[in-house]
Amino acid sequence: MKVLLKSNITCPKCEHVKSELMPIDTPLQHYECESCGEVLIAQEGMCCVFCAYGDAPCPQAQVKGVSRCTDKLH
Asked: pTM for the complete prediction?
């Protein structure tokens, strides 16, 4: 299985899209949009901003074979 390490995060406020490298060892809980400055926070029930706002789920979700990871402790 090939695990993607980049995801395009889309800001829900201004719709700016940026490709970001996903950390493999810890979920990213906060992300600041470089366009409008909005701070994105992992939504309730989501492990990280990539699962909440990205076009590819975090590496841990990919390994588990799920579309979005809800495990905040991975």
From this structure: 0.85
Confidence of residue 71 (pLDDT cuts 50, 70, 90): low
| CA dihedral sign of residues 47, 48, 52, 54 | negative
Residue showing tokens 């990539």: 50
Structural tokens at position 25? 């060892």
Sign of the dihedral defined by the CA atoms of residues 59, 65, 69, 53, in that order:
positive
Backbone angles phi, psi at 27, to 5 degrees: -75, 140
* Token pair in block for residue 16: 């700016």
Q: Return the structure tokens found at 29.
A: 């809980």
68 pLDDT more than 90: no
Amino acid at the residue 32: E
